[in-house]
Amino acid sequence: MTSRRSVSSNKKSQLRYKALKASRKTEIARLKGGYRTQEQTESLQRKLDKAKERNESLFKKNVQYLTSNWKLQDQIEEMEEKVNVLEQEQDNSKDTISELRSSNRNLGQLLLSLKDQVEEMEEKVNALEQEQDNFKNTISELRSSNQNLGRLLLSLKEENLGLKKLL
Questions:
Q1: Which residues contact 111 (CB under 8 A, 6 or more apart)?
Q2: Cα separation of 22 and 35, whole Å?
Q3: In this structure, is residue 2 part of a structural domain?
Q4: How many Cβ atoms sit within 10 Å of the Cβ of residue 26?
Q5: Where do runs of H (alpha helix) occur along 4-37?
Q6: Can you give the pLDDT at residue 29?
Q7: d(CA 22, CA 119)
Q8: Is 36 helix (H, G, I), strand (E, B) or coil?
Q9: Total tally of structural domains belonging to the chain
């Protein structure tokens, strides 16, 4: 008969075999994605929750990035429009500058012409002032001569009266 020890040893061996077999089944099931322990399920649930949170966070960030990208795209389009307007204004300014330079050249020529005319007019004014001075002198001389002639006439009248009285 078998001893107590051998029975106990057999039971232990059988238990070990069953545990090993169960462990293998659990491992195979786990690898296949089937059977899980409560702890594994909870661990997976925590990982899943963390992954969901991470996905939500990434989704929010992606939405923010997309929104900011759209805003930046709008700003880029606005800036491009402003650049186009500024380039058009710059072209217009260049045209205006060219026109003003041409106008300045024409005005410069006109100014030189006017300076020449002013010089001619100054010469004429000087000549007229000289003539006026000459006329004033002539008038003064004629007045003096008229006064002398007036005196002479008076003296001749007096002589004529004196002669008439004598006659």
A1: none
A2: 11
A3: no
A4: 15
A5: 4-32
A6: 62
A7: 126
A8: coil
A9: 1
Does 5 reside within a domain? no
Residue 51, both tokens: 């992954």
Digit-coded pLDDT (tens) for 129-156: 999 999 999 999 999 999 999 999 999 9
**The one-letter amino acid at 160:** N
Contact (CB, 8 A) for 35 and 26: yes
DSSP state of 167: -
**Segment 6-26, tens digit of pLDDT:** 667 777 777 777 777 777 766
Q: Which pLDDT value is given to residue 36?
A: 59
Residue 23 and residue 31: Cα distance in Å, rounded? Answer: 12
Burial 4-21 (b: 16+ CB within 10 A, else e): eeeeeeeeeeeeeeeeee
| DSSP-derived 3-state class of residue 58 | helix
How far apart, in whole angstroms, are the C-alpha atoms of residue 93 and residue 74?
28
* One-letter amino acid for residue 82 of the chain: K
| Structural domain containing residue 142 | 11-37+44-166
Do residues 132 and 124 make contact, with C-beta atoms less than 8 angstroms apart? Answer: no
Q: Is residue 4 one of the residues assigned to a domain? A: no
Is residue 1 a part of any domain in this protein? no
